Amino acid sequence: MRIIFMGNPQFSIPILEKLISSDIEVVAVVSNPPKRIGRGKKMMPTPVGKYAQENNLALIQPLSLKSEVFQDKLKKMSPDLLVVVAYKILPDAIISIPKYGAINLHTSLLPKYRGAAPLQWALMNGDKFTGITIFRITTSVDTGDILMKKKFPIYENDNMFTLGMRLCENGAILILEVIRKIKNQDIIGKPQNNFLVTSAPKITKEMTIIDWSWPSIKIYNWIRGLTPFPGMFTKHNKQRLRIYKASLVMGNTKKNGEVVVVDSNQLIISTGNGLLSLLEVQLEGKKKMSIKDFLNGVSIIKGSILG
Question: Residue 252: enclosing H or E segment and its boundaries?
């Protein structure tokens, strides 16, 4: 079975690792081109692109999926199947190239959370469970027939990265099973129930600003869902303060965003309903640090307001 793997983020790598260590032939890896990142604006490949280079895999980084040169290159490789994990929406011209089409690993229990941010919305909504769905790719996003699905718990200390890595590490085993069933023509897709569809739209910049009038549980869940990227932010003395980790604490609610407890080890903020203790933060222009280290270098007064 000749596979072309398509992916971008760190989440995709456990599946690619599993494929290249199996009897599956990975003939090429497709990932986004390098882009300028950080203060130095250094050109950096995607995590998948970097992994492919480090492991001497044939790497293709097309500027456009509609490029005839790119599509001809795929055709010449004669793939049996495309395996897609957190990449782009594929046009028909690419889906139709392989003998068995294309499959995708989606980090939700489809048709729940169709869209760009299933991990984020599961956490932001406070879900206790999510899962993995492997389905056939069609031109309509996340709507193809389901080939395999498995449910997994969401832990209280999960954020977007830890949940995504765990799902994809488990998903690697499922992908291999699905590929072998496709090869043996021993799998039948199940249509999705369109009456059960929910969406997981792309995260916007506006969503990353903390609204302290929200209940503490909602802010807590949104921090989990948007960590490590793009993050949740508030303001302290007109500087942007990024919150990486927080916990819920008991106590009386005061003004929205008010600092109700501050000492050498803790910073507790009032919300619209409940209190939130900040555990890991990053002040604009500084590195990420524990709340203890942060408070060693920054003066915050009890009764002051964040936001």
Answer: none
Superfamily per CATH, domain 205-297: Formyl transferase, C-terminal domain (3.10.25.10)
In whole angstroms, how far apart are CA 105 and each of 17, 83, 142, 171, 265?
A: 15, 8, 10, 7, 42
Tokens found for residue 180: 């072998």
107-146 confidence digits (pLDDT tens): 999 999 999 999 999 999 999 999 999 999 998 999 999 9
What are the extents of the domains in the chain?
2-196, 205-297
Smallest Cα–Cα separation from 222: which of 198, 306, 212?
212
d(CA 224, CA 154) in angstroms, rounded, equals 11
Instruction: Record the tokens describing residue 91, joined without a space.
Output: 């046009």
CA atoms of 76 and 67, how far apart (whole Å) = 14
**Alpha carbons 297 and 281: distance in angstroms, whole number:** 13
Q: Quick one: which H or E segment has residue 276?
A: strand 275-283
Phi, psi of 205 (to 5 degrees): -60, -35
Round to the nearest angstrom and report the end-to-end CA distance of the chain.
55
Q: Is 129 helix (H, G, I), strand (E, B) or coil?
A: strand
Report residue 296: phi and psi, to 5°: -65, -25
pLDDT tens-digit profile of 163-182? 999 999 999 999 999 999 99
Contact 117, 202 (CB under 8 A): yes
